[in-house]
UniProtKB/TrEMBL annotation:
Highest classification ranks of the organism: Eukaryota, Viridiplantae, Streptophyta, Embryophyta, Tracheophyta
Protein's recorded name: Uncharacterized protein
Superkingdom of origin organism: Eukaryota
Species annotation: Gossypium klotzschianum
Amino acid sequence: MKILAMGLSMTPKYSQWRDQMVNDNIPVSNLETARSLEEHLQVLPSEIEIIKQDFEKRSLELGKKIEQLEE
């Protein structure tokens, strides 16, 4: 019963102040830094995958140069 009695004795000014304090603690998302769900869940390639892609690209370039020299 004490809680009920205390709840009734709150002034409107205090109630408004308390609601404002609660609302100030709720984080608001910033649209400039917000990312879409697809961007957030995007899988980034590991270092070994990047090296492998670079190796394959250079191998292809060298293969083309060898073909040109053979002609």
